[in-house]
């Protein structure tokens, strides 16, 4: 059964303020996911020892990696990644809109890989939305629009996941659920699985949205002592099955 793990790794700095890329990889490896969607990765940044965190984690997990730098400061990069041990192809990696004229807003982006699950292609999209509600609404609208979920290439099984910085009562969340289903809502989970902050999870801002071809089997959060220390978020883990689309080979 395929498994996806989404995880804001907080540049691999834990709640104990210790920088430890291996610890993040160990948290992920414990759950043996097929696809890993990571947010807040540093690549070649002075503050985290010039390490390419996306590549380092991928090597430790024996996975390929696609990285998108939402923010560039000269040669220093910061952004999000999709890792997998399955065949994959990057479809798009791009910035999301922001609010003009507001200082201090962190650039945001998304990336989309087509991942081959035994002959069935699943569109995997990973993102990290901003902190300002108006900005989040713009970014959610872009994800629904014709460059992402509305793109004619985005057919069949689709998963959009990441750190949305928005709970289920917000307008950005509600906009996205008009296009895709919340995996947790599909399962009818009460109480819902919360992943932030990792030391005492009280807020649900890490989400996984799925198309009708994705059958959600289970959802959980990693909650080991290692996971609670490694980042300020816990990983959200989704087990699923795929209804093979009629227009794909082998159907």
Features of the shown structure:
251 residues, 35% strand, Deoxyribonuclease I, Chain A, six-stranded mixed sheet, alpha+beta
Order of SSEs, N→C? EHEHEEEEEHEHEHEEHE
Record field, number of beta strands: 12
| Rg of Cα set | 17 Å
- What's the number of domains? 1
Q: How much of the residues is beta strand, in percent?
A: 35-45%
Helix content: 10-25%
The CATH class is: Alpha Beta
Major beta-sheet overview: 6 strands, mixed
| CATH fold naming | Deoxyribonuclease I, Chain A
Question: What count of helical segments does DSSP give?
Answer: 6
Silhouette? globular
Q: List segments where confidence is low: pLDDT < 50 over at least 5 consecutive residues.
A: none
Mean pLDDT: 95
Overall structural class, as computed from helix and strand content, comes to alpha+beta
CATH architecture descriptor: 4-Layer Sandwich
Report how far the terminal alpha carbons are from each other: 19 Å
Record the strand order, biggest sheet. 3-4-2-1-12-11
CATH homologous superfamily heading: Endonuclease/exonuclease/phosphatase
Describe this structure in words.
By secondary structure, this protein is an alpha+beta fold. The chain has one domain: Endonuclease/exonuclease/phosphatase (Deoxyribonuclease I, Chain A). The chain has helices spanning 21-29, 53-61, 133-144, 171-177, 183-187, 225-230; strands at 3-8, 35-43, 64-73, 76-84, 88-95, 109-117, 120-128, 158-163, 181-182, 206-210, 214-221, 236-242. The chain has a six-stranded mixed beta sheet with strand order 3-4-2-1-12-11. Strands 5-6-7-8-10-9 form a six-stranded mixed beta sheet. Helix 1 runs parallel beside helix 2. The longest helix is centred in the middle third of the chain and has 12 residues, at 133-144.
């Amino acid at each position: 059964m395929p498994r996806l793990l989404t995880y804001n790794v907080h540049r691999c700095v834990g709640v104990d303020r210790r920088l430890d890329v291996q610890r993040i990889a160990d948290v992920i490896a414990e759950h043996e996911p097929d696809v890993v969607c990571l947010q807040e990765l540093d690549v070649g940044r002075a503050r985290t020892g010039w390490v390419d965190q996306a590549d380092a984690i991928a090597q430790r997990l024996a996975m390929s990696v696609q990285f998108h730098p939402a923010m560039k400061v000269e040669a220093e990069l910061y952004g999000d990644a999709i890792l997998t041990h399955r065949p994959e192809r990057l479809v798009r990696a791009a910035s999301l809109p922001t609010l003009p004229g507001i200082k201090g807003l962190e650039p945001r982006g998304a990336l989309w890989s087509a991942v081959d699950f035994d002959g069935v292609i699943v569109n995997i999209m990973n993102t990290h939305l901003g902190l300002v509600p108006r900005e989040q609404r713009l970014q959610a609208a872009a994800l629904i629009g014709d460059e992402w979920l509305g793109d004619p290439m985005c057919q069949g099984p689709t998963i959009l996941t990441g750190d949305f910085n928005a709970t289920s009562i917000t307008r950005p969340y509600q906009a996205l659920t008009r296009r895709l289903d919340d995996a947790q809502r599909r399962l009818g989970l009460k109480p819902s699985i919360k992943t932030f902050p990792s030391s005492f999870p009280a807020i649900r801002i890490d989400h996984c949205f799925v198309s009708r071809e994705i059958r959600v089997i289970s959802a959980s959060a990693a909650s080991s002592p290692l996971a609670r220390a490694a980042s300020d978020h816990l990983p959200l883990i989704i087990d699923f099955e795929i209804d093979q689309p009629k227009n794909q080979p082998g159907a």
